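Rotation project, supervised by the postdoc (A.L.). Task for the rotation student: set up a whole-complex structure prediction and record inputs and outputs verbatim in this book. Inputs entered:
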Amino acid sequence: MKPRLILAYVLIPLGLIIAAVPENTTKPYKLTADELLEEVKSGTQFISPDEVAAMVISKDPSLQLIDVRSAAEFEKFSLPNTINIPLVDILNPEWEDYIHQDVKLNVFYSNSSNNANQAWMITRQLGYENNYVLQGGLNFWVKTIMNPKEPSELSPNEEIAKYNFRKGAGMALGGADVSTQPGASAPVKKPVITKRKKKKKVQGGC
Amino acid sequence: MGPLIVNEIISENTNLFLAFLIGIGFGFVLESNGFSSSRRLAGMFYGYDTTVLKVFFTAAIVGAIGLLFMSLFGWIDLSYIYINPTYLWSSIGGGVVMGAGFILGGYCPGTSVCAASIGKLDALAFIGGIFIGVFLFTEGYPLLEGFYKAKYLGSPLLNEVFNLSRGMLIFLIILAALAMFWVGEWAEKRFAHEDYKINQK
Amino acid sequence: MSKKNQKPYMNPYLGGVLLGLVLVIAFWVSGRGLGSSGAVKSAVVAGVETIAPSHAENAAFYKQYKETHPQPLKSWLVFEMLGVVVGGFLSGALAGRLKFKVEKSPKITNKTRIVFAVIGGILFGFGSQLGRGCTSGSALTGMAVLSVGGFVSMAAIFGTAFMLAYFARKLWI
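Outputs recorded:
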């Protein structure tokens, strides 16, 4: 058989297949299921309301709050300086620069921590870093920061300090005057922002 | 998974070492196909030997299909593949100058290096010429910069221009290429030359 | 051909498939295709930097090139082209094609052939820089990634060569 015909018999079916199948536009997962499970088990993605409150009050420029609830819910109530990326929209390329970056510390929140955690799982599986989840979500935030429960007189000093901080923070965020100095007693354990390694730009051409 | 260098599976130096191995494959295939012979290369333009057409288009098609299948299987992320930018005027202008160089010199840069490696002295002269030509360009760059950067179109893909999927475009290119191969084989008989014999399997 | 005992060349379609596979490997490993003239550019820049460092610091092209390529000779294409020399030599050695000679049409002298080879080289070298890549870097690789630039280069190179073929016919047939 002529080599040209052999080539035709090989290339035409391959060409037909490649013309018929849709292009693969999915992004490859960077983390395996096992790796992700390890992270989920350790729970390092959670960041407590106290930590977030401290950063909000000190106007920490590295903090970026991201509301993953729907736009309607976002309109009704949101934390200060928050951007709204509804969970259903998380893979929209428009938002990629926000959730795939190495400058800011992103904190996802929703009413509970469920939706925020789902957003985190998706971004984490894509290998994105610096994304965290507000522990307990807005419900827990309101309970702890906005309406903190007064500890009893016999509580240890840390409890009282914590209460004072929360009360101050709640007032600060609620717009009232702050009498206490919240920054001082705030827990300062802040997740470290890991610099994302810049993908090497491939060079080419002659 | 791929490209390995982008996903940092291999180091920069390994990349260079693999470039050397890839080059060996490149040179070996070029030479085995007779791209080390200027008369064979030039035969393309007179019809007596259309090897260049066949090898060139088959390789481009295999490359294109290969990339799409690898992407389909998730082995390579196409968004990291280098796409050469299109500056329309300098692309055409450069191509015209290269075409003239091709027909007068009988080689292109890759094939001349390959030919020189088996002792073709005309290829050595051609390589000397390339050095002079590149030097003229780098020295004359301030004068040429305007033309060099004119009509920048970004890095468009041909299938986007025609509003087709990549696979569909490749399929059409396969059909066009097979038709050209048929014409090429016809031309080899039609324009055969008594002092030049195609010696291939 | 002159030598009777020379082994035949590979079938061009098989050769094309193999070349395509080399190309795919290059994409998979390094995210880029093949090329050649860029290696010459690296060598020219490195040469100018060594011979006339002050000139290299002032002229626009070298300055721009230096920014993206701190070590011009430590580039992918330079290593790839070194490989081409080895690969071509191996193939030539296996097929018994190693021989110093000038290949040309019987109608012209060796001197004419060499002169035209140099002229062709100058044009090709210049054109490859203007067009951002030669037949391998721009046309072959560009076509494999379906870039418009690749197809434009290919059409311009081969179209011009076809148009000029008539005037250069004495060189080849």
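Student's summary: Chain C has nine helices and no strands.
Supervisor addendum: Chain C has two domains: 1-99, 102-173.
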